[in-house]
Amino acid sequence: MPSLTLLGTAQDGGVPQAGCPCQRCINVLNGKTHELYPVAMGIIDDDGNYHLIEASRTLARQLHLWAKSTSHLGDAKPTISAISSLTLTHLHLGHVDGIGQFGREVIGASPNSIRLLAGQAVLDELHKRPSQMEPFKDQTIRHASRVELGKGVTLEFCRVPHREEECGETYGIIIECTSSSTSNGMPLTASLTSVSKVTRLLFLPDHDSYAETLDFHDCETIREFLNKFSIDVALLDGTFFTIGEVAVRREDAKGIPHPPIDESLGLLGERTNDDPEIIFIHFNHTNPVIDNMEKRLEIERMGWNVGVQGMTWEI
Questions:
Q1: Domains of the chain: which residue ranges?
Q2: Which of 30, 143, 279, 292 could form a disulfide with 305 if both were Cys (CB 3.0 to 4.6 A apart)?
Q3: The whole model's pTM is what?
Q4: How far apart are CA 201 and CA 142, in angstroms?
Q5: Homologous superfamily (CATH) for 3-314
Q6: What tens-digit pLDDT sequence spans the chain (315 residues)?
Q7: Left if phi > 0, otherwise alpha if psi is -120 to 50, otherwise beta: which for 14?
């Protein structure tokens, strides 16, 4: 049966972030709290092939987390190794800085053995580093295009506005799964994981604002946007809880736009019975939802959720 696993919940810099002396980062460095990896998704298709969305520098630990989080499906192994495809949402650091690890210096994947799905602007930029691209066979994605990733898994691409002068183009990815298998209903035992049924999951870790994204898709509300694509579960950009948490630290805060969680909650209101599940991801190290239970409860009381590394959905 297909399964989807959330392999990271942090913004590109991860937690801890390099050179940061804040207590949240120091706690991780001192072993008091767990590291958060940059956002990524792992997909296992109905034939048991492995597909990755995003390539971060924490790839080794994410592949181990992926194996651990799906061991209940009956294929226990210490880590995932052979990757059939890699899909990239955009060019920003944490989404592509692990791509070289598939080459001869680390994994040593054979030439042209891994499908690489990305926008043309992303592919053009990556091919400026030809030695890193040997393992990959390009497949260009476009807005509204659909690609069969493997048995029982199709990807649909949803263009969103996000600092195009830097990224070229950015996509949300709708993962659509069907299965001819019957779930054995086994519960997960690890506290880092959870199981639910899903057929269409939206992975949208980055965009500039809901005003721009909704306008791009001719929608007036977040609900209309999610309903337009028939989404069951949405993993949405939750980089900051409020823009103030970064504005007091960075003079260039206006140059790193993301819709803060408090704004998203204001637009959404409380969850109703007809709403899809919404889970916030892509946390900057400044975001209090990382370790502040009151902030998490604020989200949960409205019926929404906070992403946890290792969360797994099976079809």
A1: 3-314
A2: 279
A3: 0.92
A4: 18
A5: Ribonuclease Z/Hydroxyacylglutathione hydrolase-like (3.60.15.10)
A6: 899 999 999 999 999 999 999 999 999 999 999 999 999 999 999 999 999 999 999 999 999 999 999 998 877 889 998 999 999 999 999 999 999 999 999 999 999 999 999 999 999 999 999 989 999 999 999 999 999 999 999 999 999 988 777 767 999 999 999 866 544 433 322 334 445 556 899 999 999 899 999 999 999 999 999 999 999 999 999 999 998 887 556 555 455 688 999 999 999 999 999 999 999 999 999 999 999 999 999 999 999 999 999 999 988
A7: left
- For residue 232, the one-letter residue type is D
